[in-house]
């Protein structure tokens, strides 16, 4: 079975971004770094010896970051979902990932970090709550969700007709 690894294109700060991300998520770290050699530098216009790629792991998930230049930018068309089991986790990841990011890009748990990467910080039970068989309760969850930037887990549960977290 093939392994699929997200490959993130940064202008010139891949190593900085990877260090930032690995400081946020547990079970994370850099697994390999490659540098531009003479041939790669000539083709890419990047300095010889500068970081080309950084392979890394975030909470057990593999990624690769590339210093590829300014040709391509991140967009909301791709995002990473962080599924949280508690409000404390939501607050933690939201706070870390929004630090220095784009405040305008936030709704329904979506945010854009300081590097332009989009994330969704959501309760792990969100899919279940949005798919409640009772259409009225499901609509109530969606209505509550639409009005939020950072998700309030208790408010979502209340909208679903569930008890507040203890």
Describe the structure.
The protein is of the alpha/beta class and 166 residues long. Strand 7 (110-112) and strand 8 form a beta hairpin. The chain contains 6 helices and 8 strands; from the N terminus they run βαβαβββαβββααα. The chain is 33% helix and 28% strand. The strands form 2 sheets. The protein has a 4-stranded mixed β-sheet with strand order 1-4-3-2, covered by helices on one side. It has a 4-stranded mixed β-sheet with strand order 5-8-7-6, covered by helices on one side.
Unreliable spans = none
Q: What topology, given as strand order, has the largest sheet?
A: 1-4-3-2
Estimate the strand proportion.
25-35%
Shape: elongated
Quickly give the structural class.
Answer: alpha/beta
**Portion of residues within helices:** 25-40%
Look at the structure and give the mean pLDDT.
Answer: 92
Series of secondary-structure elements, N-terminal to C-terminal:
EHEHEEEHEEEHHH
State the helix count. Answer: 6
Major sheet characteristics:
4 strands, mixed
N/C terminus separation: 42 Å
Number of strands: 8
Rg, alpha carbons: 19 Å
**In terms of quaternary structure, what is this?**
single chain
